[in-house]
Amino acid sequence: MTKKISLISGGASGLGLEIADILVKSGRNMIILSRDGEKLDRASVRLKKSAKDNSVDTIICNIGREEDVRNVGKYLVKNNMSVEYLFNNAGMGLFASAETSTSAMVDTVFEANLKGMILLTSEILRISPKEEELTIVNIMSTSAHIGRAQETIYCAAKFGARGFTEALRNELKGTRRNIIAVYPGGMKTDFWKIPGQNKDLSSFMDPADVAVKIVHAVTVSDKMLVTDITINRK
Fold first, then answer.
1. Does 221 score more than 80 pLDDT?
2. Which CATH fold would you assign to the domain 3-231?
3. In sequence order, what are the beta bridge partners of 229?
């Protein structure tokens, strides 16, 4: 028998870590991905305190690198693991005027927010048994719907992620693959730690609260499926 797991990219901090913590407390086996080994170690300590008989594993992975993503797939196959929930949560922001855009900036932002989502999703689809149910949760941003000044590259990446999500849903219609799009607004996370800027986050959402909304909508078993979730602060 295969071991059912939940897999979260960008799971070592912020919203990803809060989602992981809820899932671990509910008894699910968890693998979190991050490029930062130190953050993964700290996250692992927290999550293992929440675990009972379920497992918590960490993998250093830059989801924008195909080799790293392939290695994740090999790890899952080698350990006879089957992904039940894939949370594409990794991402990064960039706040700059359009006239300052460079190729390096575009590559960096697109790799974190779009390319990585595509590569990781592709790998999990490739190795997942067709007869088993798989739920793919693409966590994006309200910036996937609204163009914002000083966020031209970031919005372009998020609009692309939304297009990928909607096309993927159409491609996999009629299969045992569920595609859920999540569009959260501003949260109190390291996303907003921008050199030279001191943004007031007092009215922003707590990622722990947002995680509760997402996990409930995604995992509650009934005859209905939530396909799109937008979460905004009051």
1. no
2. Rossmann fold (3.40.50)
3. 182
Query: Residue 67 in 3-state DSSP?
Result: helix
- Please check the confidence at residue 114 and state whether its pLDDT lies above 60: yes
pTM of the model: 0.93
Pairing of strands 177-184, 228-231: parallel
DSSP 8-state assignment for residue 115: I
Distance CA 50, CA 44 (A): 10
First-residue to last-residue Cα distance in the chain:
45
Q: Which pLDDT tens digit goes with each residue over 4-52?
A: 999 999 999 999 999 999 999 999 999 999 999 999 999 999 999 999 9
pLDDT-derived band at 223, boundaries 50, 70, 90: confident
Distances (CA, A) of 188 to 15, 112, 176: 9, 19, 35
Cβ(6)–Cβ(29) under 8 Å?
Answer: yes
Write out pLDDT tens, residues 177-195: 999 999 998 877 766 565 5
Answer whether 143's CB lies under 8 Å from 89's CB.
no
State how far Cα 211 lies from the chain centre: 11
Q: Domain segments of the chain: what residues?
A: 3-231
CA distance 139 to 7: 13
Torsion of CA 232, 189, 60, 211, to 10 degrees: -40
Give the model's pLDDT for residue 220. Answer: 83
- What's the Cα-to-Cα distance from 76 to each of 40, 52, 69, 124, 137, rounded to whole Å? 18, 21, 11, 9, 19
Largest Cα span, the chain: 55
